[in-house]
Amino acid sequence: MTLQLSEKHFSSMQAESSVRRIVTFKVGDRTFGIDVGMVREIKGWQATTPLPHAAPHVRGVLNLRGVILAVYDLRTSIGLGQTEATATHVIVVVDIEDKVAGLLVDSVSDIVDVPVSAVRPAPDLERDEHGLIEGLVLLDTDIVALLDLAAVIRDGGAEAPMAKARAN
User: GO CC annotation: what is one (predicted)?
Assistant: First the structure.
């Protein structure tokens, strides 16, 4: 299963109004979101090749039509342990900081339009010292945490303090 998204269409709609178009996805019982313009495609789980000495949140790499793609385990990044990937898991392929990367998530939920004014700042929590969450949105009864993908990929979130402690 692969879903291709046209970022030109979505980004032009976003620029015309004060609405953010968000792709929402699940990791466990938590809902996360990212701007749809960052999503290149959504593909079914494919086994990755592990890399030696990679950070704990780096699941490995895979070949995506000739491009070597690093896949990051979002469950590990947020401190819930490593994902036991099955055929129901998906990889959200994103463009971030001039790179293409993949996020391993449990499932993709929806694409929603959110008024910019509805995005609330994330509470200043010691647990989120790496700034993985850029904001929060209330959708019906669900709170969606908007991710800062650069921080997820760069730091790996909750696992990073442990890696720093081992280095000291």
Answer: cytosol
